[in-house]
Here is the input.
Amino acid sequence: MITTAKRLDTVEEYYFSSKLREVRQLQSEGKSIINMGIGSPDLSPSKAVIEAVAAAILDENGHGYQSYQGLPELRKGMADFYQDQFGVALNPNNEILPLMGSKEGIMHISLAFLNEGDHVLIPNPGYPTYTSVTNLVGAVPVYYDLKEVNAWEPDFEALEKLDLSKVKIMWLGYPHMPTGARGSLALFEKLVAFAKKHNILLVNDNPYSFVLNDNPMSLLQVEGAKEVALELNSLSKTFNMAGWRVGMVLGNPEIIDAVLKVKSNMDSGMFYGIQKGAIAALNCDKSWFEEQNKIYRRRRELTEKLAEKLGCKVYKEGVGLFVWAKLPEGIASAEKFIDEILYEKHIFITPGTIFGSNGEGYIRFSLCVKEEKVQEAIDRF
Here is the structure.
């Protein structure tokens, strides 16, 4: 009998991978499911992006292996984007590494810096992949609390009381997923100081900055952040390119070079046409963000009505691609609550528990649903 590696004992199949099989089964039985669980943009990239890809497909030099570091003009486009949007200066030659999606970057960074037994600070609630990747590489997850009473920001007094002697990486992501908490430059400054004090690699996962957010921020805006920090970003949410798998990691040359050592042994460069499309996306002007946010704003207003119809209290300060809402008093289980809605009303909503124990008592709605479908969900009640 062929046995699996012991590392698989530390992880389970990703929640959405298994839950969506359940949703597909209901659909095969003729149920009309409204999926408000997944943050996969249903809108299209800009016309300029599509045209750039179409032109690239006809380029006879565009079908071979590409550089592990991406096209020079792609890295320059990423550097220009960070300069224009955040005022952050980056050297495109050695401080930017394009990735096949920022999720893959979580694995690359972990493999580059974590030894078996190292500790990793992970937000609770937070993106589940931080935990699964930590477990897969044999490191130890150490959770730090994010709570509504603290505006979903870390409690530094509590952090200082932890045994930090083995901590190698600290994951964070603002705007925060799943809550939508904005964070602030003041918070980033405290985090950078904390990382320097304890010799921790700080990694900010930043794909939601431009969705319903009037003040996009980067961790790298903090003076001296590059000494101890990386930032992950992605074109998935900002430019409706989730399936294209275009991300980036940014930081100082020594840290980026370590990530490249892992990446170059795990994958190859992105398809030439996708890189050309990404360059076009990064050159979109301010009107692109404004038009996208008009759509998401209308959707958010309707989604908040749906949440309130369920007796939930919406976290109004949230930005990004989701609506985070507290369940009514007396509801003991978020998963049971959403399952009842799935089977009785055929609406799929994400339970907060998949993001950590502090997600119990909350649910998350995706804004990747057309207005008429959100209205239909409301009408089903």
In short: The mean pLDDT is 92.
